[in-house]
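FW: tagging you since you asked about this chain on Friday. Here's the raw sequence from the shared folder, copied in full. Didn't touch anything.
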Amino acid sequence: MIKLDEHLTEQQQVRRDKLKELEQLGVDPFGSRFDRTHTSKMIFDEYDAFDHDTLLEMEHEVTIAGRIMRKRIQGKAGFLTLQDVDGQIQVYVRKDMIGDVAYEVFKLADLGDIIGISGLVFRTKTNELTIKAKVYTHLSKALRPLPDKWSGLQDVEEARRRRYVDLIVNEESKRIALTRPKIIRAFQRFFDGRGFVEVETPVLQPILGGATARPFITHHNALDMEFYLRIATELPLKKLIVGGLEKVYEIGRLFRNEGMDAKHNPEFTTVEAYQAYSDMEGMMDLVEDVLSYVTFEILGKYDINYQGKEISLKKGFKRISMTDSIKEVTGVDFKEVPSFDEAKEIAKKHHIKVEPHFTTGHIIEAFFDAFVEDKIVQPTFIMGHPTEISPLAKKNKQDPRFADRFELFIDGREYANAFSELNDPIDQKDRFLNQLKERELGNLEANEMDTDFIEALEYGLPPTGGLGIGIDRFAMLITDVNNIRDIILFPHMKHKETK
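HL: got it, structure written out here
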């Protein structure tokens, strides 16, 4: 008996003991390369149309590999269920077909072990498509047992920590994991098809900018400089528009040192796109087009059921200003509020906390967050954000208190942010200076002064529209998932408490 660790469970110890037995049979417990001809799906696609007698006549041989999920032995024969990336298929194993040694290896096998099978496709008496094994190859020993097949991995926090186990035993988790990259590929096909160029911008940035968020800070030893992990890809992408690329996009990770909940993870994925000679209205059309396109590409329809709610992602989203949406719910019309003092009084009556750095614009945003956001179900463009909270967006020409900016909300969550990009370097510098004042008053999410970006604008940024879409949240919507940690394969978690 091999005794490696006194803290091993009985099951773990038994599996370690089998390592020696496999070696005595001349079998490497952790195997080597194995070439397969089919996956389970390929076999069903190719052979499911044939009946029992036809398959017997065909005598087609296939080679598959995967993990043992079920196993039963009756004397000199037995069945196992093999699982690969596409699904599961049954295998019939007979001693007289695979040989004495291989059959002993089969008998030693535990659930979770990885094997290879070469054999004939046939149908059992119950008409189940099955592989009759001719060659049984042990590939890798599983030293830990899988969760009980009836209860599975019930603790969702444990499933997120041990995603590798979750993917083995939970078909829904595997479906989500395989759907997410399809969603990203669909975004790429859309933007590529519209003539956008996919680019990469730095993750380490010396200046905090492009969004309002608290950053992660790190130190580069060789340069002896502090860097931020990027909170947005916006500013470098707009520099590329200055450089004449005209239509660019990037799908990449962003990092924000903020709270964690069902909607927020410290690192997440977005797509940002910028188009010269466009504006906020053009970006609305683009957001509608891309989200409806991706939805149909993945689901084959525009109407989805999300957490029991019927939601339509067909083009034609509702459009309403932020102030009008607040007026609809609360009766307060901030367009008619003449002063900050009056705005503060209204905030006090509605139990809205006014922070030291707040302006009227911040109060308007706080009202929207408190009273409107969670009431939105169908896709809705909220337009006309206060200029104070939109430091990179153009002011509206008719009412400069508000910016030519919108956010898309669906079922109480933000999915996209876009605007007519501010291309006036003088105005942009003033906005950055106002952001610095907010930082002094305690707003740790305010932007810093980016002199290099100002210089880039001085070379001339054409009128430009820009957008950002949260990939994780949209993937949650498409896959009917209610927690961002279930759409990210390796989410950040609190340290597991140990006894």
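FW: The CA atoms of residues 270 and 470 lie 5 Å apart.
HL: agreed, and The mean pLDDT is 94.
FW: great, closing this out.
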